[in-house]
Amino acid sequence: MKNYYIGIDLGGTNIKYGIVSSEGEIVTKGIIPSRANLKKDVILSNIKKAISSLLYYSRKNKIKIKGIGIGCPGIVNVEKGVIMDMVPNIPQLKNVKIKAELKKDFHCPIYVDNDANLMALAEHKFGAAKGYKNCLCLTIGTGIGSGIIIDGKLFRGSFFAGAEFGHTSIFYDGIKCRCGNIGCVEMYASARAMVKKAKKLLDKDKNLLLYKMVNGNLNKISTKRIFDLWKKGDRLCTKIVNETCVYLGTAIGSAVNLLNPEVVVIGGGVAEAGMKFIKKIEKEVTKRANPVASKNLNVVKAKLENDAGFIGAALLAQLSS
Amino acid sequence: MKNYYIGIDLGGTNIKYGIVSSEGEIVTKGIIPSRANLKKDVILSNIKKAISSLLYYSRKNKIKIKGIGIGCPGIVNVEKGVIMDMVPNIPQLKNVKIKAELKKDFHCPIYVDNDANLMALAEHKFGAAKGYKNCLCLTIGTGIGSGIIIDGKLFRGSFFAGAEFGHTSIFYDGIKCRCGNIGCVEMYASARAMVKKAKKLLDKDKNLLLYKMVNGNLNKISTKRIFDLWKKGDRLCTKIVNETCVYLGTAIGSAVNLLNPEVVVIGGGVAEAGMKFIKKIEKEVTKRANPVASKNLNVVKAKLENDAGFIGAALLAQLSS
After folding, report:
1. From the CA atom positions of chain B, what is the Rg in Å?
2. Residue B96: is it exposed, middle or buried by C-beta count within 10 angstroms (0-12/13-18/19+)?
3. Which terminal Cβ of chain B has fewer Cβ within 10 Å, N or C?
């Protein structure tokens, strides 16, 4: 018998949500702005709105909801449903008791976890990591998140503080990160880092194609524009993409040397650059990770794209109940 | 009822061996040179000599040996008992079928694994990591090896190629390592790296205490001498030790961000520098790893010291039979 779960994916820009069956079918889905710059109560009330609209849908369509899963940025105490730390993009969520807050309004069982953990859960069950035992799943967007599957199960570490791949240092004396560490790959290879680097380079040389493309408005620079020009062979964008691959290859290579996964799944906005970019990262990883691990490694693009977060959240509710 | 196992620890310099009970007591132990510069047959025959002498001891003392465990450098296919790769210190052992070779001479069950994995196994069962669920065990000597315990069990990765912590890159554009990777922490913070750095610095300035200590013979520089002078406040040795801790802190911090262990155990020759050195590493790790992981982390000195390797090897035989 199929069961149905609500999945919520709270991001820095949007809340994505949906009803997902135990077999991974999306019954309905939606998206609203998370308004992450506002007070935590506003954000919580937006999450509640998303849940309410899904519950309304489920009543109308006679679908019984068995549980609600929430994916949040940061380190989440899964047992208590509390965001503990590492939420630089929505700092007002630190120490917020998400589960307890939502329990006041909804009577379904509620489960909370880190968003990248849930992306990994979804990709492992229904997506690009299906059938693999040990997987490293990355989501490269504004920041870099990750989830780790070990022996077919989500691995969170001892205190829910593992799988923080974005804070792998690729240079002991490098850029200071907001997390306190030095040289975090997130500071070098995230969408934000790529755009920052482009701005810096354009500031020196206004005669470049990217500068003309955005009509001199540096705020219009996006990774999409960088990748588009890279595919056309533009020199500046090729430099940025090449360096990004070296940074990612370094951090992924180190993680592969530790975890020896069968597959590295790459998702998030930056992965939308397509297979040419994924292949370029793979090449760099293969050069760096140990030969036995490299030989047996697949670097692949995530499959579930923007839905991975709420599918994983629904899956968390399914697996936990 | 107690059972007894033979443990063999094949290192670049010595073969350490012993008979160990299922409760971790060492019944007898010994050490012979491994003569790692000679042909693989010589090394194999030295391993056989060690086993034979222990079997002789066991017959004389009416101890029944239930199995033999062997720890080797490199990536070991544990199922086949073959050294697959990553044995730069004893390269002639690559592709050697250790288990099959020994089976010709001995009728006990024989098991083979990576030496640092076995050190981790031993420290987890009988030493500094006892009682912890998730552990990262490092052995810092000529090279840097590691073993990972996840959920109370040895974690080897998908193809036995995990737990290669020594090949964590701490600089994407750093020193080229013999493994093919760039910036491996082993090239920065191993005993060999420390001595190399000392030699380089002394070459520039012959007026330093360390230079006088070795009477100008740079081949006499050892980590022991460096640590001794560091404890006395020598400027050059303080610089070397400080930098070593930054390098180790960077790599351990990244590993802690991924694995979120409860404990990091530090063993091997360099760890003999003592608690002041371990505390210094801990401080650097705490600065770099995420706050939730740091707060709950213990960085401790290995307990079983030089015996960890063969105790772990005996333990492997126990756990596998």
Report:
1. 20
2. buried
3. N
The C-alpha atoms of residue B277 and residue B270 are separated, in whole angstroms, by 9
Q: How many angstroms from the chain centroid is the CA of residue A9?
A: 10
C-alpha count within 13 angstroms, C-beta hemisphere, residue A232: 9
Cα–Cα distance, B98 to B51 (Å, whole number): 13
- Rounded-to-integer distance, Cα A140 and Cα A147, Å: 12
User: Exposed e or buried b for every residue in A168-189, given b needs 16+ CB within 10 A?
Assistant: bbbbbebeebebbbbbbbbbbb
Angstrom distance (rounded) from CA B267 to CA B120: 10
Which residues of B, range 148-167, sit inside 8 Å of A by Cβ? 148, 150, 155-165, 167
Under an 8 A CB cutoff, do B158 and A260 touch? Answer: yes
Q: Which ipTM was obtained for this model?
A: 0.97
Best probe of the B interface among A78, A83, A165, A169, by most B CBs < 10 A, is A169
Interface check B261 vs A, CB under 8 A: yes
Rounded-to-integer distance, Cα A176 and Cα B252, Å: 17
Question: What distance in Å separates residue A54's CA from the closest CA in chain B?
Answer: 34
Nearest to B257 among A167, A290, A291 (CB): A167
Q: What's the pLDDT tens digit per position in A165-187?
A: 999 999 999 999 999 999 999 99
Residue A163 and residue B253: Cβ atoms within 8 Å? no
B173 CA to chain A: closest CA distance, Å?
8
Q: Flag if B259 and A261 touch (Cβ within 8 Å).
A: no
CA-closest candidate to residue A129, choices A11, A9, A320, A297: A297
**B114 CB near a chain A CB, below 8 Å?**
no
CB atoms A292 and B172 under 8 Å: no
Q: Could you tell me which residues are beta bridge partners of residue A176?
A: A182
Nearest chain A residue to B177 by CA: give it: A288
Confidence of residue B321 (pLDDT cuts 50, 70, 90): confident
User: Hey, is the C-beta of B88 within 8 angstroms of any chain A C-beta?
Assistant: no
Mean pLDDT value across chain A: 96
User: Which whole-number Å values give the CA distances from B291 to A74, A159, A164, B10, B294, in the listed order?
Assistant: 12, 11, 11, 38, 5
Question: How close A113 gets to chain B, by Cα (Å)?
Answer: 15
Report residue A206's pLDDT band, with 50, 70 and 90 as the boundaries. confident
Closest residue of chain B to A168, computed from CA coordinates: B254
**What does the alpha-carbon distance between residue B109 and residue A306 come to, in Å, rounded to a whole number?**
52
The single-letter DSSP state of residue A185 is T
- The domains found in chain B, sorted by start residue, are 4-123+306-320 (3.30.420.40), 132-302 (3.30.420.40)
Task: To the nearest 10°, report the CA torsion of A147, A148, A154, A159.
Answer: -80
Phi/psi for A41 (5° steps) reads: -65, -35
Integer Cα distance of A222 and A206 in angstroms: 17
**Which residues does chain B have within 8 Å of residue A255's beta carbon, measured at their own beta carbons?**
258
A171/B84 Cβ within 8 A? no
Phi, psi of A32 (to 5 degrees): -135, 155
